[in-house]
Write a structure and sequence with these properties.
Layout (H helix, E strand, L loop, with lengths): L10 H9 L2 E6 L20 E2 L2 E2 H4 L2 H22 L6 H10 L6 E6 L5 H5 L5 E2 L2 E8 L5 E3 L17 E5 L10 H11 L2 E5 L10 H8 L3 E6 L11 E4 L2 H9 L1
Parallel strand pairs: 1-4, 1-9, 4-5, 9-10, 10-11
Antiparallel strand pairs: 2-3, 6-7, 6-8
The structure holds ligand BV8.
The site of ligand BV8 has 37 residues, from strand 10 and helix 8.
Length: 248
């Protein structure tokens, strides 16, 4: 059922959103789709780079095998991203975070595009790092990559090579990121999952943790996912159109 007016938002979701104090929001590539950021598993050939599936070019092995190719892939994505802006969905979450009625509002993203922060969200748990940061492969120092700057090639601290400060397939998540997110998931009363195919772990386990601990689980996605059957409410549609309807 495609929703187009606030009256079509299930009453229970509206009530939960109006009364919950501890809320966790998990986002994936779909929340940035309406900003023009290609998703990984959506239509088109966004998931392939020069014949390599994205989970091959975005993998730990590839960094060892061909770091310049990995940089070429991330440079290409930053070049697209630097001209894109947050959409209504990112902005709705900024408004949610600023509502004083939530005693604990946790935003966890799988995205590396920085659009939540660009929109004004703070204290974002970036499970997979950021495309706007580079990390030294030797001393692990990190360096911001500014939108219009040419990224530096070597580590300013030790001179070694840099790599994207992004969690690639086969790599462990930033220390503490998953633990902090999982703790919030176990405590939240309302878990809203937006724009993720729910295939990538351990991020995809967060809604499962929330549900197992009694949270009301809502998914917002134009398509069904492996998570849909676990949800109390599934809003079928685009995040940029639906998030505003929940709060009004
Ligand atoms: C790890 C950064 C362990 C790179 C990414 C079980 C347990 C643990 C691990 C595994 C496991 N099973 C398999 C694994 C390994 C692997 C994994 O999960 N593989 C999957 C594919 C089977 N996991 C890992 O490797 C993780 N590491 O577990 O380490 C470990 C322990 C010890 C030692 C070593 C390792 C690391 C995973 C992180 C990988 N990095 N990103 C980069 O960006 O290039 S993941 C990548 O996929 C992106 O970050 C992306 O965000 C993420 C998930 O995808 P989605 O965000 O869901 O995006 P997708 O395109 O799939 O879906 C978009 C959705 O939006 C769709 O549903 C679509 O319908 C919807 N949509 C479209 N338009 C809209 C919309 N929704 C709303 N509105 C719209 N307008």
């Amino acid at each position: 059922m495609q929703l187009s007016t606030a009256s079509q938002i299930p009453v229970e979701l509206r009530e939960r959103f109006a009364t919950a104090q501890r809320v966790l929001v998990l986002t994936g590539a779909g929340i940035s789709a309406e900003s023009g950021v290609p998703t990984f598993r959506g239509g088109g050939n966004s998931a392939v780079w020069k014949g390599l599936p994205f989970d091959v070019i975005s993998s730990a092995q590839m960094v060892k095998r061909d770091l310049p190719a990995v940089w070429e892939w991330f440079d290409y994505r930053r070049d697209i991203l630097k001209n894109l802006a947050p959409n209504a969905a990112h902005k709705a979450i900024v408004r949610w975070q600023r509502q004083s009625r939530f005693s604990e509002f946790t935003l966890v993203t799988q995205n590396v595009d920085g659009l939540h922060q660009y929109a004004g969200s703070t204290d974002v748990i970036e499970m997979h790092g950021s495309i706007w940061r580079a990390r030294c492969i030797s001393c692990h120092s990190t360096f911001e990559i500014l939108r219009d700057d040419k990224r530096q090639e070597e580590c300013a601290s030790c001179g070694e090579h840099l790599r994207p400060d992004v969690v690639l397939f086969g790599e462990i998540l930033p220390t503490g990121a998953f633990e902090r997110a999982a703790e919030a998931a176990a405590k939240c009363e309302l878990c809203i999952v937006i724009g993720t195919s729910a295939l990538v772990y351990p991020a995809a386990s967060l809604p499962e943790i929330a549900k197992a601990n009694g949270a009301f689980l809502c998914e917002i996605n134009p398509e069904r996912t492996p998570l849909s059957d676990l949800c109390d409410v599934v809003l079928t549609g685009k995040a940029g159109e639906l998030l505003d309807l929940i709060e009004h």
